[in-house]
């Protein structure tokens, strides 16, 4: 697969689409809890993210699962166990978000 050639418009559109997948008050927080190959049960995420409701956590996880960022792993046992983790594509967001964090920190340091 060759390198994609972008125009200014197609590059802007691509980045905008990526940002739309990450929109939502909690999606980035969820991502940072799952980076590094971590798996977490729903209740663990709920406890780790103060202020998030069950309904919102379910909604955000489903959206990220639908976008291919998060995977839902069902362990068929009694009682059933469900864990959430990042897909390889979701994990690949880590360096991009780290670069954004570094970039934002440079502005904060320049003030």
UniProtKB/TrEMBL annotation:
Name of the protein in question: Transcriptional regulator
Organism: Chelatococcus reniformis
Superkingdom of source: Bacteria
PROSITE patterns: HTH_HXLR
Keyword Lyase: no
A Pfam cross-reference name: HxlR
UniProt keyword terms in alphabetical order: DNA-binding, Transcription, Transcription regulation
GO molecular function ontology, one term from the record: DNA binding
Annotated ranges, domain HTH hxlR-type: 12-111
Keyword Membrane part of the UniProt annotation: no
Transmembrane segments: none
InterPro entries named in the record: HTH_HxlR, WH-like_DNA-bd_sf, WH_DNA-bd_sf
